[in-house]
Amino acid sequence: MVRSKPAKRGTRRKSKALYGQSDKHAIIDSTVHPLADNHWLFVIVDGLLHAAVEKNPEVSLEKFVRYNLLELLKRIIKEQK
Question: What is the pTM for the complete model shown?
């Protein structure tokens, strides 16, 4: 009696994401930066969106402080005057 081998089940491959991390950052930059020119609140929104993409709160906070905090404070102080 000849037995046939059971069919092998292939391993599922993860489907490739539609957008890579750099693509997501570029989309955020192109949509939020023009708004940030009009109001300082969008600088914070930009930082939060980038943090969501990076999924590393410590690094995201460090980058926000390094690249955005000084300009954000200048804008808020200027608006208060």
Answer: 0.74
Q: pLDDT tens digits, the chain, 81 residues: what are they?
A: 667 776 667 677 777 889 999 999 999 999 999 999 899 999 999 999 999 999 999 999 999 999 999 999 999 999 898
d(CA 14, CA 46): 29
Pull the structure tokens for residue 7: 């069919």
Residue 47: is it exposed, middle or buried by C-beta count within 10 angstroms (0-12/13-18/19+)? Answer: buried
Terminal alpha carbon distance of the chain: 93
What are the residue boundaries of the structural domains of the chain, listed by start?
Answer: 21-80
Nearest one of 56, 53, 55 to 23, comparing CA atoms: 53
